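Is zinc ion placement plausible here? Inputs below.
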Amino acid sequence: MFEDGTRVMMADGRSKDISELRANDYLMAEDGAPVKVTGVIKDSQSTYEIVHKTKHRAFEGEAATNDPLRKIIYQRLSFNCTLTHDLVLRTPAKPMIENDFTKNIYRVRYRTLDKVNTDDGRIINIPKQHKKYFKMTPEGKTDAENFRDEMERQCGEFLNYNLQVRDLDLMMPLLRITTYLRFSPLTSGNGVLSQFLTGTKHLNTKAVLQMAWMLGLWIGDGTTNEPQITVDSFDTSLIDALNENSKPWGIYPTYKDEAFASRCKHVSLHYGQEAGENRVYRNLRKNNPFWNVVTSLKFKRDGDGGKQIPTFMWSEDEEVREAFMAGLIDADGYVCKWTEKTGNLKVSIQTIYPSIMNGIVHISRSLGITATVTTRSSKTITIRGRQVQCQFTFDCNMYGSERLQNILSYCHSGHKTRPVPSTISRDPVYFTFLDIKKGINDVYGLTLEEDKNVLLENKTVVTMCTSQCKNEHFKIKPSKYLQHCIACPHKGIKYFYKNWSGTAKLCGRCWQRYKFSGYRCLNCNFVPEAREVKIAKAKGEGVGLTPEGVPVKGYFCRRCNGILKYDGVRGPKRTKEETSRKAKVTSVGNIQ
Ligand SMILES: [Zn+2]
Ligand SMILES: [Zn+2]
Ligand SMILES: [Zn+2]
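Reply from A.M.:
I modeled the complex. Tokens:
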């Protein structure tokens, strides 16, 4: 069952809160087909947050302490469900041969889906890793290769299975960190834009796509209260494209140079022929088909009149979504990587508007492109002696190969456009995830007419409920492999290292920082970054107490105002003598 507030994808491409669903509603199945809801159940159970594992750690660093807005991680792929809900998982299982020269053997590592008895008497399917040994002889090598091929034939490259949230803990750490959930792109759409422009749904002519591109460009660099777009005049291909794309709609882009001919031109999209000698009418807003779309389809919000990406765009027809994103990239995007060999691309779009950030993320995912959001605090910077105020900004980062390249093929800006890729796959995108315990919440479950996977609003593929979902269940054992970092709130199952005393664990990041700088807080175990150490040094030394009550001298900890201790020798070489020597140097009594 899912927590109240979980948004599910309906068959028509809109989304609804799970608590609003009723029997006979239709959801969108993973294959895009509609699937009927036959019943709704409600309960109160403890929930778990299933969340995309990214490298973001919004709570770390100085920026996060100073700016509360940066403590939020925006638009991470996640959903909250109960402990007994089934997840749709995949684990790679390609068998491998390893050479072990010390033991003179070939070791074949392979993974299979095994039946396991749980402590509460259920039989579940869970992936397990196995090893088989062969002698290091020519015959042994052939046997090993045959065995590997046989295993690959039996189990395939991937294990696909469903597993309840509570059973994730039974997985070996190595397998758990390579286990993936998936999100699935949308191949169909609602055809709202073409219906508005042509009267027919899904009639995505060249002109409709040109309109979609202009809308994207306006969302990026347009003026909120009139059909005007700011364009870099050095980018001649972009200006040409704007002329070209607006022509089918009877729109003539014009701009006036101001007293200072600046590089940025404010291009107005006039409707109707250019005014001749006799001053024939020429309209900016009236009857202007572009402005009609902007206002009628709510690209301009009611009320405050701000720019937004209306939610129908999230599930528009595929080409419309692509053309729209291309316009947005032409305006505000930055294309970072392009390696001819791997074809991997990264595009980032900066925006200060949350609605535009949401739209970018949803449309990217609907096209099978991974999207994450990072943020920048507001600040004042100096450019060529002038003070410039930068607002709080969202950096929307999109990663992909040929799917992203296909969007860029609609772009017109000189250095952003790319050729149309030869093939485009619309396969699901896989991502690793964490499971984090939450409190007791209202939960809703749905039963479906067919046994199919369905999509959430964020395109994550999920199952609907089975009978075990109805009642609250608890974990029989506490998590077997879960580890906690003593220096930060991070929890995980892999990449933890022994701390300075050897009795507790540090996460990979804190461990790296500690090894690099050698500073740690005696009071709260915090490991400062090099930059924070610098700030602490600038503030100067002071006297504080160790947790045992011994006075010590040192720099202050940013987090708790305790005293930072410096370890000259770190890692396994550190000896007891070293520890006591350091302790003497820092103790106030000895210095005097
Ligand atoms: Zn359920
Ligand atoms: Zn840590
Ligand atoms: Zn501290």
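Short version: Residues 1, 82, 85, 445, 465, 469 surround zinc ion (ligand 1) (CB under 6 Å).
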